[in-house]
Fold:
Amino acid sequence: MNTEQLKNEITFRTSRSSGAGGQNVNKVETKAEALFDVQASVALSESEKALVMEKLAAHISSEGILAMSNQTERSQLMNKHLAEEKLLRLLEKAFLKPKKRKITRVPQAVIAKRLKNKRLHSEKKALRKWIDSENLG
Structure:
């Protein structure tokens, strides 16, 4: 994955942002959406494209566009930067391979400690029982 080439392939779409901002919200298009066409990308290999399409299917539109938006800042430029960062982080996360889990055994000391605690708890509960003195014998 070539990050610099990816950044060149990202296009932006702006719209009016919702939320706080006073008159600024009504006048300026501060919400920014970073759009990335996965299939048309030159920065990704065919195997990387397939991996992105599979792992990020929930974020990809029917046209094959991966989109991330941001509207937290009052500045359009800052929102563009944050949306781009979100998109790149999402792509990097898609390429990470999870580590294989090493199967381990539970140590005997841990098992013994758990059983000891269970026994002590059971004895404590047993001592709380009400004893009927008439039926003792």
In short: The chain has a mean pLDDT of 87. The chain has five helices and three strands. Helices lie at 3-9, 23-27, 46-55, 76-95, 108-127. Residues 123 and 130 are 14 Å apart (CA to CA).
